[in-house]
């Protein structure tokens, strides 16, 4: 996407990606983003290998001869990269306000609103949210009779893989816990005639009732699908970044990096 945006800004853009395009793009990348070309190179080489038009043999030879750098681990966090690093406090506030406003006017659904709020509150990886079931949402009471809310977050054993072997109990504020509890009850009722135990229904189910699910994860979304759904839903809000002047880039990893950065600062 970054390369396409760069190329679209060029006045002499042609129907084919050229050596000049690659060299100019490489020169435009600042140090924290120099690895973008490494990611792009794999795509372009496969594109050419599959025989599709648009990538010439000269481009492939150029990429093969280049020394390409990988993504420097932690660089996006250390440099507060405005594209892949943690959100600024101003960006978090703008995102929260936009989510609340969109939910109030019906622009996003219950599940999109609650999933976004959980990402903001807890960070976490998409595979953890994709593993959640309605039984993981819990409402307790204090000795004084006040309601308390918790969610049992599955630990992600392997990136991209759902797992329900270990959990960590996370407390939720009432403003999130109360609507999440009511939402979980609605999902549970929906699956009463579908699953033998509706408490095992996914908290954020796949919209289609068809799929090739692993045992114990019937009707669950994949981690990748859930992450894409979150990014797409929030992308519709067009929340602007005060640092770039453009709409926020909203991959799930940025929520995790934001929570980690804030915890380290505190």
Assign the structural class, choosing from mainly alpha, mainly beta, alpha/beta, alpha+beta, or little secondary structure: mainly alpha
Largest sheet: 3 strands, antiparallel
Weakly predicted, low-confidence segments:
none
Which strand order does the major sheet show? Answer: 1-2-3
Q: In words, what does this structure look like?
A:
- The structure is a single chain.
- The chain contains 11 helices and 3 strands, in the order ααααααααβββααα.
- With 266 residues, the protein is mainly α.
- A 3-stranded antiparallel beta sheet has the order 1-2-3.
- β1 (137-141) and β2 (147-154) form a beta hairpin.
- The two termini are 34 Å apart.
- The mean pLDDT is 86.
Notable characteristics:
single chain, 266 residues, mainly alpha, globular, 46% helix, three-stranded antiparallel β-sheet, 3 strands
Q: TL;DR of this structure?
A:
The protein has 266 residues and is mainly alpha-helical. The chain has helices at residues 2-8, 19-28, 36-49, 57-65, 75-78, 89-104, 110-122, 126-131, 174-190, 223-235, 253-265, and strands spanning 137-141, 147-154, 167-172.
Topology, pairings included?
Elements: H1 2-8, H2 19-28, H3 36-49, H4 57-65, H5 75-78, H6 89-104, H7 110-122, H8 126-131, E1 137-141, E2 147-154, E3 167-172, H9 174-190, H10 223-235, H11 253-265
Antiparallel strand pairs: 1-2, 2-3
Helix pairs in contact: 3-4, 6-7, 7-9, 7-11
């Amino acid at each position: 996407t970054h390369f396409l945006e760069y190329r679209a800004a060029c006045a002499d853009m042609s129907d084919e990606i050229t050596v000049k395009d690659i060299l100019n793009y490489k020169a435009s990348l600042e140090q924290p983003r120099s690895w973008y070309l490494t990611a792009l190179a794999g795509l372009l080489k496969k594109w050419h290998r599959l025989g599709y038009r648009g990538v010439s043999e000269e481009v492939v030879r150029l990429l093969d001869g280049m020394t390409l750098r990988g993504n420097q681990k932690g660089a996006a966090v250390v440099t507060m990269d405005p594209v892949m690093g943690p959100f600024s406090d101003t960006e978090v506030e703008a995102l929260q306000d936009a989510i609340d406003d969109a939910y109030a006017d019906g622009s996003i659904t219950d599940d999109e609103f609650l999933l976004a709020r959980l990402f903001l509150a807890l960070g976490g990886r998409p595979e953890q949210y994709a593993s959640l079931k309605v039984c993981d949402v819990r409402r307790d009471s204090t000795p004084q009779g006040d309601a308390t809310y918790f969610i049992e977050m599955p630990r992600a054993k392997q990136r991209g893989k759902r797992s329900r072997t270990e959990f960590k109990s996370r407390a939720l504020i009432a403003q999130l816990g109360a609507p999440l509890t009511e939402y979980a009850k609605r999902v549970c009722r929906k699956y009463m005639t579908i699953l033998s135990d509706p408490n095992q229904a996914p908290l954020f189910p796949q919209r289609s009732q068809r799929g090739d699910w692993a045992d114990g994860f019937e009707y669950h979304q994949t981690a990748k699908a859930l992450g894409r759904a979150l990014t797409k839903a929030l992308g519709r809000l067009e929340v602007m970044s005060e640092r770039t002047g453009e709409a926020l880039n909203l991959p799930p990893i940025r929520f995790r990096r934001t929570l980690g950065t804030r915890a380290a600062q505190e």
